[in-house]
Structures are given as C-alpha cells and as structure tokens.
Design goal:
YiaA/YiaB family inner membrane protein; single chain; 2 helices; mainly alpha; about 0% strand; about 100 residues; transmembrane; rod-shaped
C-alpha cells in the first residue's frame, strides 16, 4: 500500500491574496456605506445587508471546504480498501 502525503491544495501566495482581497473589499464597502449621501436608516440597512453578506460568504466557504474534505477522506478510505483487497488477492490460489 502506498502512502501518499497530503498535499496542500493552495499556495501561501493564494491564501494571502484571498485574505487581502477580502479585507480590501470589506473595507471599501464599509467606507462606501458610511459616506453614502443618504439618511441614516438607509446606511444602517445597507450596513446590515453588508454584514449579512459577509457572514453568509464565510458560511458558504466553510460548507464548500467541508464537502471537499469529506470527498477527499472518502476517496482515501475507498483507495485503502482497494489496496487491501489487491494486496490480499492471490490470482494463483486454488480454492
């Protein structure tokens, strides 16, 4: 049975880019809502919408990550079962 090391699915540069992009977009939208020439209740409503969007985005990314990790684990378990069956199989054995 071969043991494959777990490879990271993303590089550090990709991670840093994603964090910076998220931070910049959140900051820009927050500043835009604060300085919007509209009554306070409109800005508050848009701020709540922004907060809802951010929390739902984080939840969605966690769900996608969990689903991907589950498929990887399932694939590795299935591969281990197949490797075990192949290792125990003797094509020249006569019953």
């Amino acid at each position: 049975m071969t043991n494959k090391p777990i490879q990271p699915s993303q590089t550090n540069a990709y991670y840093v880019q994603a964090v910076i992009s998220f931070g910049l977009s959140l900051t820009a939208m927050t500043i835009a809502v604060i300085y919007l020439p509209a009554p306070g209740w409109v800005r508050a409503f848009l701020g709540l919408g922004l907060l809802y969007l951010v929390t739902s985005t984080v939840t969605l990314s966690k769900v996608v990550r969990d689903r991907q990790e589950l498929s990887v684990v399932t694939t590795r378990v299935d591969q281990a079962r197949l490797d075990k069956l192949l290792a125990e199989h003797d094509p020249f054995r006569v019953d």
